[in-house]
Design brief:
The protein has 113 residues and is mainly alpha-helical. The protein contains three helices and no strands. It has one domain. Helices cover 84% and strands 0% of the residues.
Length: 113
């Protein structure tokens, strides 16, 4: 039979790990979709410029694409920071073991290929 104290210690750790992994995986997918979307837009611009339909100032396009990717990654980190702050502020309902599970779970989710 499983000891109740072991279950009370393991459940926040497991929940934090699952939540962290999900958030890391989601951040990675959103950033991938943004990169693919920007790449497709730049490919469309290159194709239209090749066919002499439009002219593109590539310095401006490069700057705008970089700024957009920077904004997306900054917002994703801000969301993760807000979640971790909320977890830390609600330590009574989500014990420190939950936060201890969230951080490695998030890193595993973001590094998963």
């Amino acid at each position: 039979m499983i000891d109740q104290s072991l279950v009370s210690l393991a459940s926040p750790l497991a929940f934090g790990g699952i939540l962290g992994f999900t958030m890391g995986w989601l951040c990675r997918k959103i950033i991938k979709i943004a990169i693919i979307g920007i790449g497709l837009i730049l490919a469309l611009l290159a194709c239209l410029e090749y066919h002499k339909t439009i002219t593109v100032n590539w310095n401006v396009a490069d700057h705008q694409a970089s700024a957009l990717l920077h904004n997306i990654s900054t917002k994703m980190l801000e969301i993760v920071n807000n979640i971790s702050t909320d977890l830390h502020n609600h330590a009574t309902t989500f014990p420190i073991l939950g936060v201890a599970g969230f951080v490695p779970g998030f890193l595993m989710g973001i590094m998963r290929s």
